[in-house]
Amino acid sequence: LVALAALICFVASGAHEAYTALAGMETVITVLFLLLYLLRLDARMRCLFWPLADIFNSVVAALFLLVVGLFAVIIKTNKGTLAGGVLGLILLVLCLIDVVLLCKKIRLDKARGRSAPAK
């Protein structure tokens, strides 16, 4: 929702296309990962380790959001761009929290797999 709000702010303010493209891309990718996990497609498509793909997405998004969020806040051509930049920085923090939680989850799943008895 934060990515969608940032996208709306950037579009409404007529901000630079790069800001809008990044917010739109992150919104779409987040919705796709949400659908992947909600529909349990990650269990069906085992060709990729999905939590690691989610971590990679969050790290790359965090790097891009850092640059775009800081540029939008520093330049602040209007209030919409400033609001989008602040929402982008909030989204950056949420991406970093996602990375930490997913890393803990992977570590816990790996630890459980070792201690589980063989079948």
UniProtKB/TrEMBL annotation:
UniProt-listed InterPro entries: Marvel, MARVEL-CKLF_proteins
Listed GO CC annotations: membrane
Membrane topology, from the record: Multi-pass membrane protein
Keywords assigned: Membrane, Transmembrane, Transmembrane helix
Nucleotide-binding in keyword set: no
TM stretches of this protein: 24-43, 55-75, 81-103
MARVEL domain residues: 1-107
Positions in coiled-coil regions: none
Predominant location category: membrane
Localization per Swiss-Prot or TrEMBL: Membrane
Presence of the UniProt keyword Transferase in the record: no
Name of the protein in its database record: CKLF factor
